């Protein structure tokens, strides 16, 4: 018998009060990264994407315009980058995340991406751009590798030639033993001998670009094998708080298994069930939830992980309103 994981208490009792803790003004989109802080890039984008996922974003056209104006307040007219504050994410993450939030409400950046011209000027320039990434620290580094094409895809700011080169390069450089990109100095020197959650989390950022463009993933069977191996006994891919790494794990399982024609599908389903059991306990525990989710950014990935499980296994998830996988509509998170 299928166990049903119930998130209605979280959705009906906890989510809105949690969101309101980060209110930084009266208008649409005025949210801070930390409680009692100023409106910030991540505060406004986190809340838009989180509310979109749980079906709590019913905006009029004028409200969408107002929210987009808040997001675009943080874009540089000189470069097109969005201002990075409060987190350790690089500017590529901040910018692609802002573009994704805008895309979900049918809005666009205020200024062109002047930063993209040096990358797109030639294939040699593209190679230089991608080779400069720190592939040894691929979890954060991959935000660069996915953030740039995500921005260009969602705004139509690059020719097809860029994506042909991009996917060809990724396909050629994927590790046949794992499906991840294990090409940093730490990998070449065998300091990292077996893929960890860092390699999985880094690879995930490229996989949703593959999905958005309807491209087949490289070595999907190996992705399933390693992602199943990396899941902890607690059902998560890290310790006791569900966050973006669990979206990485769940998405790697569901989408790569589908890419491989249902490879290890029963085990993938069981792994998603273990994750849902952990997430159900965490998100429905008022004291734990409000105590540990104390900035605007930690929750978004967890919500998307639950939404991903619900997309593939709707009989396993119960919510007050349907949850949506934002990555199928805007290719960055």
Structure commentary:
By secondary structure, the chain is an all-alpha fold. The chain has one domain (about 5-330): Glycosyltransferase, CATH 1.50.10. The protein is about 55% helix and about 0% strand. It contains 15 helices and 2 strands. It has helices spanning about 10-20, 40-55, 60-70, 90-105, 115-120, 125-130, 140-155, 160-175, 185-190, 195-210, 220-230, 245-260, 265-285, 285-290, 300-310, and strands spanning about 5, 315-320. A two-stranded parallel sheet has the order 1-2. Helix 4 (about 90-105) crosses helix 7, helix 11 runs antiparallel to helix 12 and helix 12 packs parallel to helix 15 (about 300-310). The two termini are about 35 Å apart.
- Major beta-sheet overview: 2 strands, parallel
Predict the CATH topology. Answer: Glycosyltransferase
Structural class: mainly alpha
The best one-word shape is globular
SSE order, one letter for each helix or strand = EHHHHHHHHHHHHHHHE
> Mean pLDDT, rounded to whole units?
97
How helix-rich are the residues, as a percent range?
Answer: 55-70%
Instruction: Return residue spans where pLDDT drops below 50 for at least 5 consecutive residues.
Output: none
Strand order of the largest sheet: 1-2
């Amino acid at each position: 018998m299928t166990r049903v994981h119930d998130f209605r208490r979280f959705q009906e009792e906890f989510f809105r009060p949690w969101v309101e803790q980060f209110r930084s003004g009266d208008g649409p989109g005025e949210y801070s990264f930390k409680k009692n802080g100023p409106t910030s890039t991540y505060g406004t984008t986190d809340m838009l994407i989180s509310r979109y996922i749980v079906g709590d974003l019913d905006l009029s056209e004028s409200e969408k315009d107002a929210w987009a104006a808040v997001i675009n307040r943080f874009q540089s007219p000189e470069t097109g980058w969005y201002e990075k504050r409060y987190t350790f994410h690089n500017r590529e993450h901040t910018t692609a995340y802002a573009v994704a939030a805008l895309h979900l409400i049918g809005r666009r950046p205020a200024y062109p991406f002047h930063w993209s011209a040096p990358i797109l000027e030639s294939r040699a320039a593209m190679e230089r751009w991608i080779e400069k990434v720190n592939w040894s620290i691929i979890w954060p580094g991959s935000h660069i590798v996915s953030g740039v094409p995500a921005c260009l895809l969602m705004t139509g700011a690059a020719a097809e030639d860029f994506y042909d080169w991009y996917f060809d390069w990724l396909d050629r450089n994927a590790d046949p033993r794992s499906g991840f990109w294990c090409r940093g100095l730490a990998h070449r020197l065998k300091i990292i001998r077996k893929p960890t959650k860092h390699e999985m989390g880094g690879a995930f950022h490229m996989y949703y670009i593959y999905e958005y463009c309807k491209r087949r993933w490289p070595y999907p069977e190996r992705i399933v094998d390693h992602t199943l191996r990396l899941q902890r006994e607690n059902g998560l891919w890290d310790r006791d708080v569900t966050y973006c790494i669990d979206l990485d794990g769940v998405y790697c399982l569901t989408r790569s298994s589908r890419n491989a024609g249902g490879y290890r599908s029963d085990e993938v389903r069981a792994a998603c069930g273990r994750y849902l059991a952990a997430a159900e306990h965490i998100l429905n525990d008022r004291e734990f939830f409000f105590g540990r989710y104390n900035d605007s950014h930690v929750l978004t990935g967890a919500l998307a992980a639950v939404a991903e499980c619900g997309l593939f296994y709707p009989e396993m998830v119960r919510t007050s309103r349907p949850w949506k996988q934002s990555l199928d509509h805007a290719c960055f998170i």
